[in-house]
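We now fix the convention by which a protein and its fold are recorded. Here is one such record, which you should read through line by line:

>
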Amino acid sequence: MTKPKVLIAFYSRNGSTDILANAIADGAVQEGAEVRLRRARELVGEDVMSQVPGWRENARAMNEKYEAPTEADAEWADAIIFGTPTRFGSISSELKAYIDSLGGIWFQGKLNGKVGSVFGSTSSKHGGNESTLLSIYTPMAHLGLIIVPLGYADPAMFKAGTPYGATHVSARDSLKPDEDHLAVGRFQGRRVTSVARGLQHANTTESAN
C-alpha cells in the first residue's frame, strides 16, 4: 500500500500557526505519511503589510521556506489539513482564497472522499479559536471532504487543543506553542494519516472485489 499523502495548507502571520503546522507534519510522518507543507500568500501589498510590525518580514521569510498551495497539491493529497489564525472569529482571507480557488477540481469531483481536518491559533484568550475551526467545516463539507475532528481520543487532548483541531493562544504573540500544544498537533497528524490509510485500504479492497 502506498503512503498516505497529506497536504497541510495554512496561513501564518507571526509564526504560531506555522509551528503547529510543523508539529502536525511530524505526527503525520511518524504515522507513515508523505507530507506537503504549503503557506497561503498575502492578498494585500507591502504598503499595507508595512503598517503591522513584522508582517512583511515574516511573510518574506515564510514564503522563502514554503511554496504556495495549488490545485495540484489538493488533487495529489489523500488528506487536506487546513490551518489559519483567527480573523474576527473566522478564517483568514488568505486561506479562504486558497479554498475558493479549488472550485475547478471540486466541480470535477476530484476532492470527494478525501480526509479533511483543521487547526488554528488566535492572539487572545476566547479570541475565536473554536468558532474559526468550525467555520472551516462548512466549506470542507461543500468540497466533499470527510471531516476528521480530534475528539478526546488521546491523553494530549486533556491538556491543550480543542476537540475540533489543534489550537494555540499566543497572548498577543508573546507565547509560542508549548509541548502540550505540539503534542496535540502531532496527534492530529497521526490521526488524520491513520484515517486516510484506512480509506485507502477500503478503496483498494472495494476495487479488488
